[in-house]
Amino acid sequence: MKTVLHTSDSRGHANHGWLDSRHTFSFSSYQNPERMNFGVLRVLNDDRVAPSKGFGKHPHDNMEIISIPLYGDLEHEDSMGNKKVIKEGDIQVMSAGTGIFHSEYNPNNDKEVQFLQIWVFPNKQSVAPRYDQKTIADISVPNQLNQILSPHAEDAGVWIHQNAWFHLGDFDKDTNLNYPLKDKNNGVYIFVLEGDILIDNQTLNKRDGLGIWDTESINLKAKKGAKVLFMEVPMHLN
C-alpha cells in the first residue's frame, strides 16, 4: 500500500472577496509541482461563493467536471441550453468533451454557497458535451458508503467517461467498514468533509485528504461523527 497525505492547512488558498477557494491540487495561481493530480483526479476545489456572486461564462473541453454542493444553492447555465439549480443533497456532472461554455452563480442574496468542484481527466477525447444532475440524498443510507458516481449510466448516481467510482458517507462515532476497490489498478482519494476518521491507522481530520493505491481494500473507522467522500480513480492517464 502506498499513500500520500494532504492536510487541510497545506492546500492552496485564494480569496477574491466574492470567492474563497481552497485547492488540494495545483489550480490557477496556486502551482505546486508535487500537487498536480492524483491519478486522473486533476482538481479538487473547496469553494465558497458570496451571496449574489458567481463565475461568469467560461469555456471547458475534454474534462469531466463534477459539482457537489455542501451548503446553499448553485445556479448553472450552459451553452447546451441548460439552466438548473443544484443544492445540498445533489450532484452535478458535465462532460465538456468537444467544448462547452457555462456559468455558475449563487442565486441567493442572503447566504453563501459552499461546494466541491472536481475535475477528472476522461478516458475518451472529444465526446459530445453532456449535462446531468441527480438528488443523492434520496439514495443515502447512514453509516455506509453510498455510490454517487460511476462509469455506468444504469448505476446509482451520475456517470462519467472514466473508470471511476465516487462514494459519500455519513458515519456515527465508532462506525467501522471496509471498502474493496472496484479495480485493482485504481487508487482512492479520501476527502473528509466533517469530523475525524481513521484510515488504516492514519488519522484524518476535517478537510484532510489521503490518497491510497497499490491495495485491494481500505478500512475506515469514524472517531466521531463524520462525513467522507471516497473517489476511486485510475492511477494512470490514458
UniProtKB/TrEMBL annotation:
<dbReference type="InterPro" id="IPR012093">
    <property type="entry name" value="Pirin"/>
</dbReference>
<dbReference type="InterPro" id="IPR003829">
    <property type="entry name" value="Pirin_N_dom"/>
</dbReference>
<dbReference type="Pfam" id="PF02678">
    <property type="entry name" value="Pirin"/>
</dbReference>
<dbReference type="InterPro" id="IPR041602">
    <property type="entry name" value="Quercetinase_C"/>
</dbReference>
<keyword id="KW-0408">Iron</keyword>
<keyword id="KW-0479">Metal-binding</keyword>
<feature type="binding site">
    <location>
        <position position="102"/>
    </location>
    <ligand>
        <name>Fe cation</name>
    </ligand>
</feature>
<dbReference type="InterPro" id="IPR014710">
    <property type="entry name" value="RmlC-like_jellyroll"/>
</dbReference>
<feature type="domain" description="Pirin N-terminal">
    <location>
        <begin position="9"/>
        <end position="120"/>
    </location>
</feature>
<feature type="binding site">
    <location>
        <position position="60"/>
    </location>
    <ligand>
        <name>Fe cation</name>
    </ligand>
</feature>
<feature type="binding site">
    <location>
        <position position="104"/>
    </location>
    <ligand>
        <name>Fe cation</name>
    </ligand>
</feature>
<comment type="similarity">
    <text>Belongs to the pirin family.</text>
</comment>
<dbReference type="Pfam" id="PF17954">
    <property type="entry name" value="Pirin_C_2"/>
</dbReference>
<feature type="binding site">
    <location>
        <position position="58"/>
    </location>
    <ligand>
        <name>Fe cation</name>
    </ligand>
</feature>
<dbReference type="InterPro" id="IPR011051">
    <property type="entry name" value="RmlC_Cupin_sf"/>
</dbReference>
<protein>
    <recommendedName>
        <fullName>Pirin family protein</fullName>
    </recommendedName>
</protein>
<dbReference type="GO" id="GO:0046872">
    <property type="term" value="F:metal ion binding"/>
</dbReference>
<feature type="domain" description="Quercetin 2,3-dioxygenase C-terminal cupin">
    <location>
        <begin position="148"/>
        <end position="233"/>
    </location>
</feature>
